[in-house]
Every structure is written in C-alpha cells, then in structure tokens.
Design goal:
This protein is mainly alpha-helical and 128 residues long. It has one domain. 75% of the residues lie in helices and 0% in strands. The chain has 5 helices and no strands. α2 packs antiparallel against α3 and α3 packs antiparallel against α5. It is elongated, with a radius of gyration of 16 Å.
C-alpha cells in the first residue's frame, strides 16, 4: 500500500498541460459565457485527460484560483483599487482589496475543483 502525502496530489509536470488547458478554457469561457464555465472547463479536461479524483480537484482548483487572482489583481490595479475597496466594505465589512480578490479566487477555485472532481468521477465510473 502506497502512502500519499499532500504534495503528491499537487499538479506535477505530467499534469501541467491539463493545468494550462484549464486556464485557457476558463479564460476563454469567461470572455464569452458566464462565470461558472470554469466548472465546465475543468470537467471537460478531467473527462478527456484523466487524473485521479483528488489530483483532478486540485488541478482545477489551483488553475482557476491563480487565474481569478491574477484577473482580479489586474482589474484592481487598472481602476486604482476603487471597486475592490467598495466591494470589500460591502461584503466583508472591512476595507481590504486584497482579501476580496482572495475570496473571489477561492470561490472560482472551488467551483472549478468540483467540476474537475465530477469529471474525474464520471471517467472513473465509465471505466468500470
């Protein structure tokens, strides 16, 4: 029985093309469709290019978390932190533009991670 630690589930060089594909599909989906297309992107990649369930979840989660964090940062810098400050005051009750970006990225990461996990389980069931 092989012992797994947390780091064995993180994306490796074998998972890197899947990681980049999730980022590209999520970004393109976000340009033309709704925000939840990140789940469809991670789901599609997990079905077409299989990984174990936990790695599929982390692959989708980390890819979209980093994508949304970068997008939030660039949008925040472009408008001189005005929108992020206001949104953090309304939603989080504190004035912290960085925290609202992290919360947004967490939500996107969870949605994509669950999409990847669902695709991985569909692929797993299909093989049995």
């Amino acid at each position: 029985m092989r012992h797994h630690n947390f780091f064995s589930y993180l994306p490796s060089m074998k998972a890197f093309p899947r990681f980049i594909l999730i980022i590209v599909l999520s970004y393109l989906g976000g340009l033309f469709l709704s925000w939840w297309t990140v789940a469809l992107a991670a789901f599609t990649v997990a079905v077409l290019i299989p990984l174990p369930p936990m790695r599929s979840f982390l692959n989708g989660f980390i890819a979209v978390f980093l994508l949304w964090l970068a997008l939030a940062f660039f949008m925040d810098v472009r408008n001189d932190h005005i929108m992020a400050n206001r949104m953090s005051e309304v939603i989080l009750k504190i004035r912290n533009p960085i925290l609202i970006g992290i919360v947004s990225a967490l939500i996107g990461g969870l949605v994509a991670g669950l999409g990847g996990l669902s695709g991985s389980y569909l692929r797993y069931r299909k093989n049995k």
